[in-house]
Amino acid sequence: MRPHEQAQPPQDYFRYVNVDAGWVDRRIFWDEAIYERELEAIFARCWQFVAHDSQIPNAGDFVTTYLGEDGVIVSRHTDGKVYVYLNACPHRGNKICFADEGNARRFTCNYHGWAFSTAGELTGLPSEREAYDAGDIDKAAWGPRRARVETYKGMIFATFDPDAPGLEEYLGDYRWYLDAFLDNDEGGIEFLPGTIKSYANANWKFGVENFIGDAYHAWWTHDSGGRAMMGGPFPAYDPKDTYHASVNGHGWEFALEGFGDIAILGSQEVIDYYAALKPKIAARLGELRARLFGSLASAAMFPNMTFLPGIHTFRMWLPRGPRKLELRVWTVVPKNAPQSVKQAINIGCNMTFNPAGTLEMDDGENWEGNTRTNRGWVSRHEKLHYGCGKSRQIEHPELPGIVHEGQFNDANQRLFYQRWADLMNAKSWSDVPQRYAPRYAGRPTR
Amino acid sequence: MPAETHALLSIDQHLALTQTLYREARLLDEERYADWLELLADDVHYRMPLTARRFRADRSAALAEGPGYVFDDDKGRLGLRVQRLESGLVWAEDPRNRVRRIVSNVEIYRAETDGEATVHSVIEVHRSRIDAQQRRLTAGRTDLWRLEGGSWRLVQRLIQFDHPVVIDSNLNVFF
Ligand code: FES
Ligand SMILES: [Fe+2]
Q1: pLDDT for position B68
Q2: Mean pLDDT by 10 residues, chain A (446 residues)
Q3: CB–CB of A227/B84 below 8 Å?
């Protein structure tokens, strides 16, 4: 069965998620059957980040990653285009490429030596004339399955679903927020080389929902790291001029004040760099987004891409079963920044947000705890409270998306799980309800 | 990293440095971080670079070794880490985890500069975590130590972590 020919879902997933009452059923973090449906209804369907242009600039450059549990090769072909295809040989199914990254002219399967171009075409079979008769194999039809590939401002996304809306429609008005991170300067961003990977025994959704809007945890979980990095506790929380914004399940929570995130990097040089850049950001993106960028914020694109705008850490939460995730982390820098600023951002990122970071170190254990307690049958059948800030939805003249006031809020999480249930219920993309009319449909956001 | 030499130290110096390595491991196991910082030279450079699995034949450098590090610390940043650990607010270490470091395969050679030594070693870090979970992390280390006022101080440490994917949800430990 092809991803776009899915069976009717066996149940209504809104029995696990109640957006109005503000609760989530704990079984969605444990149950194998629900996880299997996620692989089908979410990861075989949604656009997911696979690489940034700057990571694979040359022909033959490649990285290997995953869409759900489907391993894929992401490579730049000699035609300059990026192709994404299953990292699984169509002969007997062995993995085609066991390297994490690098440069290759072709990929050759270890088992019988079938060879594939960097565009994912089957180009050669050893002993072809001795082994195969005419008509045995049509090589053009037997390359590994290719995904659709689209980019947004250097970010490369892929999906295996031919019926998925285009990337721009999938992102919707979330582009308005993304531009504050990807396009606040004419050079855009680049990814520094090097991927830090780690496992946690936690459900992937806990990582994502933490970044989509859990400002609340920072004051408690990160007290130790916050004091070490900032010389004191996190500044008092200000409910005024702080927001949750959600579009199609993508979320951004933020303040509109100062250099909260940027300051955590601990480099005066980086603060000065952005202070000088601020008027240019305002001219480019407007006053509001200039205030938004670099304030205390965190963001997630549905289903599993997250970043901290201003701290410049960028990460993917790859599912590895209902109770395990693989976290991949990169540092993002402004492409036009001087080398010393890039270096300072990188040091600040490594110091704060990786598995040995003074802030990140305190997170993983929580998500493992959230997941592991569901082993208990009674615990698993309880609900979790997601009711914070239910009544704080507002209409904002400038901020697009479904907007709630107050950075301490569960709004983005509730709307993430609403999107989750919408997709879990849908037989195809045409069944996915439009819950927000975009302001910028068909129009650029910058 | 210091050039490879094979000249040995005097037996006394060798012994003193070996003891220092073991003592360092015990100080960390016992969470005596302030004492550990004392073992570090003021110009210490402590780093754990990233690793990626690449094909042997792959000569492209673009993605090979980036500026990415799990640790890339000077004494100031190590001090901040210690400050965090000693804040009494690190919930993941409360109740405390039992950590045991095993240091072995120690090779000590005279370095180019007088009074400095290159030290290769292997470290195995056993962490006994929540609900009796066990984590066993291994790494190779290449160090430069310097004699200062009669005792050995760590000047450089390059940690070659053996896990392409960190097999723990945090690295709340020093190597
Ligand atoms: S399984 Fe790949 S060549 Fe046979
Ligand atoms: Fe956190």
Answers
A1: 78
A2: 60 96 98 97 98 97 98 98 98 97 96 98 96 96 98 98 98 98 96 94 98 96 92 86 97 92 94 96 97 95 97 97 97 96 94 93 95 97 97 97 97 98 96 97 96
A3: yes
- A188 is written with which tokens? 């855009």
Q: At which residue do the structure tokens 């549905």 appear?
A: A302
> Which residues on adjacent β-strands are paired with residue A18?
A23
The answer to whether B136 contacts chain A (CB < 8 Å) is no
Cα A300 from chain centre? 6
- Does the pTM surpass 0.90? The reply is yes
ipTM at complex level: 0.93
Q: Which residues have C-beta under 5 Å from ligand 2, the single-atom ion?
A: A 363
Enter the tokens of residue B29: 């196991």
Contact criterion met (CB below 8 Å) for A222 and A359: yes
| Ligand 1 neighbourhood includes A350 CB (under 6 angstroms) | no
What part of A 64-103 touches B (C-beta under 8 Å)? 98-103
DSSP string, B51-97: -----TT----TTTS-S-EEEEE-HHHHHHHHHHHTTS--GGGSSPP
Provide the token pair at A184. Answer: 């606040």
Residue A258: which region, alpha, beta or left (left: phi > 0; alpha: psi -120 to 50)? left
- Find out whether the peptide bond into A433 is cis, omega within 30 degrees of 0: no
Residue minimizing CA distance to atom 4 of ligand 1: A112
Gyration radius (Cα) of chain B, Å: 17
Task: Give the whole-angstrom CA distance, residue A319 versus residue A35.
Answer: 9
- Cβ atoms within 10 Å, residue B94: 9
Identify which ligand lies nearest to the alpha carbon of A115.
1
Indicate the residue of B50, B67, B91 with minimum beta-carbon distance to A195: B50
Say yes or no for a CB contact (<8 Å) between A101 and B52.
yes
Distance CA A70, CA A50 (A): 12
> Of the residues A85, A94, A97, A123, which should be mutated to test ligand 1's pocket, given the most ligand atoms within 8 Å of the CB?
A94
Strand arrangement of the beta sheet that strand A155-159 belongs to: A48-52, A155-159, A148-152
Residue B66 phi, psi (nearest 5): -90, -175
Burial of A80 (0-12, 13-18, 19+ CB in 10 A): exposed
The answer to whether residues A49 and A328 touch, using CB atoms and an 8 Å cutoff, is no
Rounded-to-integer distance, Cα A17 and Cα B91, Å: 30
* Closest protein CA for atom 3 of ligand 1: A112
Q: Residue A334: which of A318, A312, A319, A317 has the closest Cα? A: A312
Is the Cβ pair B66, A202 closer than 8 Å?
no
CA distance A319 to A44: 12
